[in-house]
Amino acid sequence: MKTFALFAATLFVFALTISPVVSEDEKESRLTELDAYWAEVSRAVQAGDFEGYAATCHEEGVLVAGTKGTSYPLATALEKWKQEFADTKSGKIKASVEFRFSQRLGDGTTAHETGIFLYTSTNAEGDETKAYVHFENLLVKKERWRTLMEHQKSSATVAEWDALAEN
Predict the structure, then answer these.
(1) pTM for the predicted model, two decimal places
(2) Which residues pair with 9 in a beta bridge?
(3) What distance in Å separates the CA atoms of residue 116 and residue 96, rounded to the nearest whole number?
(4) How far apart are CA 60 and CA 76, in angstroms?
(5) Mean pLDDT score of the chain, rounded to an integer?
(6) Residues 149/64, Cβ–Cβ less than 8 Å
(7) Where are the domains of the chain?
(8) What is the pLDDT of residues 59-100, one digit of tens each?
């Protein structure tokens, strides 16, 4: 039993220390692609382009709503958000989303992005609402990048938002 425990511990440490080597060029290429991905997410939200936004999500994606203590398929979240996209497209409301990152990990086909997003909406009366949200996104790339898991962790403050450098 002692031998097995030593073997298991050694295997665990070994697994933690190995990682694929990603060159600076590969990292730069990935970040350029991901910047374009986030720009498309922002564009789709601002335009009310539901289909464009849905195309950024993996069909088996999951939304983790940390503030609500739940998770469910992104497809379910998309259905909940569909009317807001329609209202934005028709001009009933204005919406936008911006992203700032505190950590960006990955390789050529996977990415884990951590930061804060700012979602702003303005209703027909001109009342503006801003939501600053700590988030983590797990993305995968086959033909294109898509969100596999979006974790809306908790509310963020303006000070926390300001502390993250703009990309």
Answers:
(1) 0.85
(2) none
(3) 14
(4) 11
(5) 90
(6) yes
(7) 25-163
(8) 999 999 998 999 999 999 999 999 999 999 999 999 999 999
